Structure formats: C-alpha cells, structure tokens
Predict the 3D structure of the following.
Amino acid sequence: MTEPSARPTRAQQRLQSEERILAAARQIFAELGYERTTIRAVASAAGVDAGLVMHYFGSKDLLFARAVEVPADELPGGTSGEVAEALLTSLRRRLTDEPAASLALLRSMLTNADAADRYRAAGKPQLNQLTEAISAPDAHLRAGLLSAIVHGVIAERHLLRLTHLADASPEQIIDLLRPCFQTLATAPPTSGKPS
Amino acid sequence: MTEPSARPTRAQQRLQSEERILAAARQIFAELGYERTTIRAVASAAGVDAGLVMHYFGSKDLLFARAVEVPADELPGGTSGEVAEALLTSLRRRLTDEPAASLALLRSMLTNADAADRYRAAGKPQLNQLTEAISAPDAHLRAGLLSAIVHGVIAERHLLRLTHLADASPEQIIDLLRPCFQTLATAPPTSGKPS
DNA sequence: GGGTTCATTCTACGGTTGTTGACCGGCGGC
DNA sequence: GCCGCCGGTCAACAACCGTAGAATGAACCC
C-alpha cells in the first residue's frame, strides 16, 4: 500500500487545487475587492493557469460566491442583555481574526451588488435574532444600529486600518462598547422592566 | 446690454460644463464606486464627449479627486458632552441629505487606495477634535469608535440601504444613539467628574 | 495494456476602458 | 473683418479582462 500523501489521487489533487484557488481568491478579494481582483491574479497566486479557475468555478461571479461562503453566525438566544453580550463576544472574535472570506465580502459590499446581497443575507439571521430578543416597538431599528456598529468597527479596523481602532486591543474595544450595546438592546424603562 | 444668461460667454460655458461634469461624476461615483464608473458614462450623463472630461480634468483619478472634494466638517469645541451632541447634530444632517461627494468617497473607500487616503484625511480633523475633547487616556480609541459608528450608520443607511436603518427617521436614530455617544465621550467616573 | 477520462495549459477572441491626438467651428480681441 | 484661441467632437490605440476552446499528457478503469 502507498501512503495517501505520497502521490495524491486525481480526485485529491483536484480538491487540493480547488482549495488552493479558493484560498488565493479569498485573500485577494479581501485585499482588493471584487473589481480589482483578476482571475489571472488569483490563478497566479494559486500557481495554476487562469483557464483552470474558469474550468472549476465557471465564472468570476461564481468563484466569488464560493470564496465568500461563510457560515451564518448564530447568536445564542436569551434576554436582551444576554444577546447583547453574545454580540460582544462575537465581535471580540471577529476583532482578532476575521476570516478572509468575511473580509472579502465586507471589502466588496459597497461596490458589487451581488456582494451587497450576500452581505445582507449573511447578516439577516443575526439581525432577526437581535430584533426578536429586543422586545420594543423600535426593535428593528435598534438591531440595525447594533449591526451597523459592529460592521463599522470591523471595517474601520481591518479594512481601513484606522490607527485609532487598529492599534487597540479587542478587550478594550468591547469594554467601551458594552454600555452602548446594553443601552441599545434594552427597551426604554418607561414601559418595560429590566431583567 | 445683453442679459448675461441669454448667451453665456465662453468662460461661463466652460465653468458650466465643468460643473455639469462634476455633478454627473459625483452622482455616478456615489452610485457605482470608483472602479465601475467609466469616464464615458460620466461624459454621457453630462451630455459631453469623453475626451472633454480628459481635457478638463486630466485623468480619471484627478476627476475623482475633484468630485469628492468636501469641506472639512468641523465640530464646535466644548466639553465632551457638548462635542458628543455636536457630533449627533452633524449625524442628523448627514442622515437626511448626505451630499453626493461624501457618498462617492464613502462608496469607494474600501476598494480604492486613493479614496481611502482621502477618507482618512477628511475624517482626521473631526477625529482630532473628538480626541481632544475627550480627556481620557483612551481618548484616541473612544474617538475612533464614535467615528466608526457614525460612518457605519451612514454607510448602511445610504449605501447598503438596510431597511432597518433606511426606513427610520433621523430623530429616532440620533435619540437612540445619544446615550451611546454620551457614554463614549465621557471619561470613566473613577477619576474624572462629569460636567 | 489500451482506451478513456480528466487535470491542466496555451492561445486567442471580443469587449471595455483610460487616454491621446487630430480635427472642426464659433467666440474674442485687434 | 480677420486671425487665433479654445470649447468640443471623433476616431483610434494600447492594454487589460473575462471567457472559450483546442491541445496534451498522465492517471484511472476494465
């Protein structure tokens, strides 16, 4: 018997090439965005020919779709306060190492309609969970604001690299944001009682 | 004497054409971003030939630079609370009618390095004023967070058009954000006393 | 072991884009 | 009234990009 890693079978090699292409695509899409990324550049970074990328993924759009596939980031349900804390935990993880797939989606969402749709779709479950947990007439707006804050902070840290945000520790950031999130997630005290 | 508007002089006509081109450029840059905007499309929208755009502005980059020129948005100084309120006022204005020049800059900042630089430069004075007003060791970070929130909300409302944010009234948004801004602008109570 | 499948490459085409230079015609000064 | 400047157009070039299709050679199945 031969070691499975000694000489990869054809199917293995195909998967391996696909994965190398996808990794290169994720990185370049995340760095340059959809429009400035060329199939040739992705192929070159993956060490293959541009034709192969087309052969495996069909088109640039389909390659992008595969590259930015990201698991829906579900929040554990609970009270509004607990959900706010869960959102902070999610934010802390994303502040340290946001995966390239998410960055690629973020980078392209303003200039590519398809990316914008995927971004909206990816954020939708979290948005719904937030809206549901915040029992208030303006829960929709509060959830939208929380989402906007999260993505604004991530974008300015990882994409724009504003020094004010890029140099700070995740703990420092979420500690400053915690009261904001709690306030936004908590219904006004006039009609609802906390906890 | 002839009415000055009856037949415009040559200099007037040039300025008029330049302004029409700039207006078209601002709108298209704001809608599509830098890369998807073509000089031909701008020229067509302005009712002129593409060559004229080059003739007047030199290159696409220079046209973009002229199109996104936006006056630095200065905040009136004061205590941290007053500055936070001024930032809210600025936000309210930008929520109703953000000028196309600013939207063009926002739209392109993630995919165009030059736009990113201009964005950073445009936000710098406001960022400095915020940092100065917030007397705390982490003033830099707090100012950065405030800026990130403002731009995140504007981007998701005007560029991404997330329904949660696009449908809300500016008053509702800034009322929800006010406690967040006050909290972020106010130094921790352990060492500083408010007002 | 022979025929086939398939991973991979090469070449090329059509379209778009930024940019250029020649050209035209009317306004402005003399 | 004439000449030159200048607003404006037209046609074209060179580069690049996404994409298609033929070609090749090695791996796989029977």
Remarks:
- The CA atoms of residues 28 and 132 of chain B lie 36 Å apart.
- Residues 80-185 of chain B form one domain.
